[in-house]
Amino acid sequence: MRAYILIQTKPGTSEEVVKRIKSKVKEVTQADSVYGRYDAIVVIEAPNLESINEILYRVIEKDPNIIHTETSLVLSS
Predict the structure, then answer these.
(1) Which CATH number among 3.30.70.920, 3.10.129.10, 3.20.20.140, 3.40.50.720 corresponds to the domain 2-73?
(2) I need a surface site. Which of 18, 28, 31, 35 has the fewest CB within 10 A?
(3) What DSSP element (H or E) covers 49?
């Protein structure tokens, strides 16, 4: 199962957040700091929804520089 996580960070911290997520989460297949409505986009490949949920709530959303996340799950691959 693949998920796209759109992240808003505190100003000036998006690159730091992306590096931290890449180092902590082995399921990350891609993570980039971007310009636009969101500050970073992270792609996760996990075996099931429960794994994605655990990554989101126990690792990503605990980052003190993350303000908001929005997750989009891929329907089929």
Answers:
(1) 3.30.70.920
(2) 35
(3) helix 49-58
31-68 confidence digits (pLDDT tens): 999 999 999 999 999 999 999 999 999 899 899 999 99
Give the rounded distance of the alpha carbon of 26 from its chain centre: 12
Q: Tell me, letter by letter, the H, E, C secondary structure of 15-42.
A: HHHHHHHHHHCCCEEEEEECCCCCCEEE
Question: By the 8 A CB rule, do 6 and 70 touch?
Answer: yes
The mean pLDDT of the chain is 95
Query: Taking 80 as the threshold, does the pLDDT of residue 12 lie above it?
Result: yes
